[in-house]
């Protein structure tokens, strides 16, 4: 999970994004008017994860005027521009994420997170891939063993939505923020019945000024 500080103007954005990419990317030149996947990956600190790259770009330019955002998107290389359209995030309030969030799709959710106690009675299960040598199997494990879990709420409703990031020292601030990641599914048991519930696996967050 990484905090994203958005660009404040298009000059800063293009200076960072049109950067020549990785040192061994021989076909990308800095400040050539085109932003390649390698250049975006260099700024985002990741490689070969197009869905996350798109999410990073969306948050990074979220405070720019719309015409500047369009200008930046127009400078993406063709394949990256297609990926941007393919993986463009849903923007959701916390109260509408369960009903409207699309599984496996990028989403940006706005609200105030509250960390759930690791010793709570929350019984959500996720499937974790385990390699057995010749094949890959999926084993159900408690989500709270793998993730820090939060409930996020907005000002429009008392309804909450679950968000999660892999366990670590860094925690989300208990203030109004945007969290960005991928909508996933887990199994929960309620009153003896099993059902599926969505949650957001967080890649990035951004404080709202």
If you had to describe this structure to a student in words, what would you say it looks like?
The two termini are 20 Å apart. The protein has 209 residues and is of the alpha/beta class. The chain has seven helices and nine strands. Strands 3-6-7-9-8 form a five-stranded mixed beta barrel. The radius of gyration is 19 Å and the shape is globular. The protein is 27% helix and 35% strand. The chain has two domains: 87 residues, no CATH class; 117 residues, OB fold (Dihydrolipoamide Acetyltransferase, E2P) (Beta Barrel). Strand 8 and strand 9 form a beta hairpin.
Name some characteristics of this structure.
single chain, 209 residues, alpha/beta, OB fold (Dihydrolipoamide Acetyltransferase, E2P), 2 domains, five-stranded mixed beta barrel, 7 helices, 35% strand
For this structure, the CATH topology of the largest domain is OB fold (Dihydrolipoamide Acetyltransferase, E2P)
Q: In the residues, how many domains can be counted?
A: 2
Assigned CATH class of the largest domain: Mainly Beta
Sheet with the most strands, sense and barrel status: 5 strands, mixed, barrel
Counted beta strands:
9
* Cα gyration radius (Å): 19 Å
Please, what is the average pLDDT?
A: 82
- Outline the low-pLDDT stretches: 22-29, 44-48
Terminal Cα separation, in Å?
Answer: 20 Å
Strand order of the largest sheet: 3-6-7-9-8
Q: What level of helicity do the residues show?
A: 25-40%
User: What's the shape?
Assistant: globular
* DSSP summary: helix tally: 7
How large a portion of the residues is in β-strands, by DSSP E? 25-35%
């Amino acid at each position: 999970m990484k905090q994203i500080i958005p660009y404040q103007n298009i000059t800063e954005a293009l200076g960072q994004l049109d950067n020549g990419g990785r040192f061994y990317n021989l076909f990308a030149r800095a400040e050539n008017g085109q932003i390649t996947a390698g250049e975006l990956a260099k700024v985002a600190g990741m490689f070969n994860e197009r869905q996350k790259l798109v999410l990073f770009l969306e948050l990074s330019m979220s405070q720019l005027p719309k015409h500047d955002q369009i200008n930046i998107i127009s400078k993406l290389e063709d394949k990256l521009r297609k990926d941007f359209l393919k993986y463009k995030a849903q923007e959701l309030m916390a109260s509408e994420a369960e009903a409207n969030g699309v599984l496996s799709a990028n989403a940006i959710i706005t609200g105030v997170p509250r960390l759930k106690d690791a010793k709570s009675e929350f019984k959500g299960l996720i499937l974790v891939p385990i390699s057995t040598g010749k094949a890959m199997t999926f084993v159900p494990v408690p989500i709270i063993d793998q993730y820090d879990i939060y409930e996020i709420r907005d000002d429009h409703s008392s309804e909450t939505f679950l968000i999660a990031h892999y366990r670590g020292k860094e925690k989300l601030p208990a203030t109004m923020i945007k969290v960005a990641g991928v909508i996933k599914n887990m199994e929960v048991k309620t009153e003896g019945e099993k059902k599926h519930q969505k949650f957001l696996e967080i890649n990035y967050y951004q404080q709202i000024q």
